[in-house]
Hints:
Elements: E1 6-8, E2 12-14, H1 20-24, H2 30-42, H3 58-67, E3 71-73, H4 88-94, E4 99-104, H5 118-129, E5 134-136, H6 139-147, E6 153-155, E7 181-185, H7 198-215, E8 217-221, H8 226-232, H9 236-248, H10 257-266, E9 268-269, H11 274-281, E10 286-289, H12 292-300, E11 305-308, H13 312-321, E12 325-326, H14 328-332, H15 336-339, H16 346-365
Parallel strand pairs: 3-4, 4-5, 5-6, 7-8, 7-10, 8-9, 10-11, 11-12
Antiparallel strand pairs: 1-2
Helix pairs in contact: 2-12, 4-5, 8-9
Amino acid sequence: xxxxxxxxxxxxxMIYDQVRSDYINSYFNTGDMMVYDSIxxxxxxxxxxxxxxxNPTEADIARYNAIFDYVILRASNFIHEYMRWEKAExxxxxxxxxxxxxxxxxxxxxxxxVELSDESKRIWSLIAERSRAIGVRGAFSAExxxxxxxxxxxxVGCPSLFRNRDRDLKLALKAPADNKRIAFSLRxxxxxxxxxxTKAFTRMQRELLLRVSDTYDTTVTxxxxxxxKAFFAKDEAAIGQATERLRKAEWFTPENEARLTxxxxxxxxxxxxxxxxxxxxxxxxxxxxxxxxxxxxxxxNRVPGVVVSYDTRSSELAETFSIPTYSxxxxxxxxxxxxxxxxxxxxxKKNFGSNYDRFKGLLDRCAIPNRM
Length: 372
C-alpha cells in the first residue's frame, strides 16, 4: 500500500520508469525508496503487488482476498492533518486479510497537538483492528495516534536501520582526526510543516554545509530536489534555470554562490537504485544528515552518523534509536571534531540489539514471515 519505486530482483527498489528529463524536473523523495527497499529486505515473501487505492474495482478486492496473505502499508509520514487517502477507506473496509503498518510516523514541525481528519481516524482504526498493533517510529507518533483515539500502538522505529539484518552490528568508529570522508545529506526544500522558521533553517543548513565541505572530503547526497538533480545530471540548460530558482529562494546568494556552485558541480550524489546508496556510503568515514534516510542507512552499513534535528521526525527517530543528534546551531558553535566523537555512540551500541529485537518482535507477534 502506497509503494515508492519499481521493484527488481525480488527485494530491491529503484526509481520508476520515466523520461529522464521528467525525473530530473520533478521532486521524488529517495528516502521513500529507502524505506520501501528496507521493509522488503526484512520480510520473507514469495511475491507482492500494489494495493490500488486510487481506482480500485470489486474485481481487485476479490483478487486481493483470494491470493494474498496480508497488506503492508509502507512506513512513512502518513500521520498528519493533511493526509489524503483517496479510496483507501473503502478498500480496507472490503479486505478480509490483515493490514499492517510497521514504522509509520507523525509529521509536524514541532512536538504539538495534531488533530487528524475524520478520514484519517477511520483509516487508522481500520488498520488497528486488522493487526496486533500499529508499529510507529517513536513516542511522538504513538502520542498523536493515542490523542486521536488509536491506542493499539507499539514503538519500533524505522526498518531502514535494520536493512542489512545484522543484529550484531558494529560501527566502524574512528578517532575524530581519522575521519576524512564525510557524507552530508542535504534537505534544502522545506515548509512550515517541517521547520518552524524556514529562513533560519535555510541559512543554518547552508552555513553547516559549507563548513563541512571546507574541512573534509565531502559527498553531498541529494534526495529529490529538482534543482540539485539538474546539477547532478550536468544538464546545462536545466542548471541555468535551477540557478535562477536557487537565487530566488535565497539559497544562492552573492556571498556564497560560487562556493555552492563548485560543490554542486563536483560533489553531489544521487541514487537511482537504493543499493547504490549502500555502495556509496560504505566508502565514507562518517555521515552528517538533515535526511534521516541518509543517516539510518549509513548506520545500517556500519558508518557512524549524526542527525541534524529540525522537526519531530528527525528528533523522534534519533530518540528511538539513541542516535546522536544536534541542532545546526550546536554543531556550528563547536569544533567539528567534537561532533565526530566515537564515545557518543555508546548508547546506540548498547541499545541496538534490543531495538532490533523489538522490531522483529512485532513482526513475529503479527505473524508476518520475516528474515530478521
